Amino acid sequence: MQVPLEVMLERDQLQQVIKITTNVAVVGRGQDCDIRIDDPLASRHHCRIEVVDNQVFVVDLDSRNGSWIGGQRVLRQPFSVSDVLRIGSTTLQLYGGIEQRLDSVESTQTQRLTREQQVLNTLMSTVQNLQFEERIPQLSAMVVDAAVSMCRAERAFMFILEDGKVSYSMARNFAHEIVPSPEEKFSQTLIERAVGSEVPVIVEDASADSKFSGVESISDLGLRSVIAVALRSQGEILGVLAIDHRLTGGAFGSVESEMLQSLAAISALNFVNLQQHQQLISARRRNLLLQKTSVNHAETLSAEHLSIPHFPGMIGTSAVMRELFVKIEKVIASDVPVVIDGESGTGKELVARALHFQSDNASAPFITENCGALSDTLLESELFGHVKGAFTGATHDRKGCFVEADGGTIFLDEVAEMSESMQTRLLRVLQEGEVRPIGSDEVIKVKVRVIAATHQDLLRNVKRGSFREDLYYRLKVVGLHVPSLRERNGDIPQLVEYLMQQVSDEAGREPRSFSEAALVAMQSYSWPGNIRELRNEIQRLSMLDRGEVDVKELSAAVSRAESKEGVHFDERTTLPERVKAVEIQAILQVLELESGNRTSAARTLGISRFALLRKIEKYELDIPEEK
Predict the structure, then answer these.
(1) How far apart are CA 86 and CA 56, in angstroms?
(2) What SS3 state is found at 43?
(3) For residues 206 and 226, is the Cβ–Cβ distance under 8 A?
(4) What is the dihedral angle through the alpha carbons of 559, 561, 566, 571, rounded to the nearest 10 degrees?
(5) Would you tell me how many other CB atoms lie within 10 Å of the CB of residue 548?
(6) Among the listed residues 134, 124, 33, the one whose alpha carbon sits nearest the alpha carbon of residue 87
(7) pLDDT tens digits along 142-201
(8) How far is residue 59's CA from residue 80's CA, in Å, rounded to a whole number?
(9) Environment class of residue 129 by beta-carbon count within 10 Å: exposed (0-12), middle (13-18) or buried (19+)?
(10) Is 28 helix (H, G, I), strand (E, B) or coil?
(11) pLDDT, tens digit, for every residue of 565-598?
(12) Quick check: 344 and 413 in contact, CB under 8 A?
């Protein structure tokens, strides 16, 4: 980048100007971010600001709470000086630099970049930025944006192929807007011809070309100028990149064909690298799982452990979690409504995010709303929108969550908390596929996948009459149960390690390890708050001290549970592991009872003092010597 960009960061009425001197800058709470924001609603790596030639984009990095511009949650969108990027309670604006950069460009000898220079700048910027992208939807969006810009097309399409069939598609227009249902907007015949051709397929005017006179898909779609080129790598066809212009015949020629070929070749290389990177990550995860399983379950290791699907943030290899993962894997490919039930804090939203972001529709909107947190009036406005003046305080029009989620997914948390009147309105939307904002006569058609969650028993509520039976069957085409920690306490050691690494990274600290006694105590506790409570405990422990976490550092409720409750085991726990856990618990209980006196404790346990000392050493129990 020739001239640095300046970004104005504001939070709590405090402003800071940050200079960006590279083409890519990561924004988030992590210590390694180029723009670090201290906002609890920001993810560690929240979004990316990237520059392609003379245009700035915001790219969301699958953040938990989203990146917002103009009231819209964005995945990849142009970022201009008039835009305000909102992350939690923090805002970012382009403060300066982009105009100066443009001015410096226009002060060249010709006062204007030639067409070739513009194309080269776009191509080079795209090449530089592609190396930072590790997700197919965002990588595809970057490529199609570059194709539109370089070739001055109306739209660009990316089709990823698997076994000769389209497994993923993405399309955007000249305004960088997502074109919904790309496969319905482009000809399958042209995709097939591009795959079978060594050179780009160029159509100067499809409406007048006799070769396409019998192809209904081309005439029906109104296609005129088209170029389609296959993405190839070492003889393998990865997909097809295409551009079109529906208003002008002969819009593209050999120059655009060569540019699209170059972009396709670069894209193919990045897709291959991305696939290899993902395969490497999967292999590392399998190896790590194998190593842990070999250590902890050497006698019960089986090949089925290696085929457990993985979803971001969802940790565990217990039977109930394996069953949940398999069910999620089956539901991902469908767009049917789903109800997720489970106690508070079990991670129901993680399941909903997995269903959306691991699907082919990952680039579409994902909108969340908590139905139990708002009154009827506010919830109706949030879900269905309102027009200005519809009620007191309605100072402007609001689209509503269903319209914002059009083409994507809406996640309705605590759906059982809805009043009867709101249940009726929701049922009407699900039946008719349309919403009417408060105070408006306009009906808006929407196509949205609904995922609902609740900690209540919906069927029991139906029998009691507090939840509509017809709405229940509309929502619960598929049901998923997220188990409590009590049902999967064998996963606690993995969860503890994962959460400790997570909170330590966020705080910029070294992660702490856990003693055997501490892990036994944590497995003995019932965790009524589930993962949420466990994470709070880990967060507190990460801030208290350094080094290994001892049982004495655990909160009172957890440490008391260890001394009062028996040890609970996952059904796959081996006999040596069970014996070890019981021995540790018994030793700690009796030593506490005998005020740390080893001789008295050994007598109570029915073993020699020497045997007790050997076990304390064997299990590495950090117990002070008796006085």
Answers:
(1) 16
(2) coil
(3) yes
(4) -90
(5) 13
(6) 33
(7) 899 999 988 989 999 999 888 788 888 889 998 888 888 888 888 888 899 899 998 998
(8) 13
(9) buried
(10) strand
(11) 555 555 566 777 777 777 887 787 777 767 778 8
(12) no
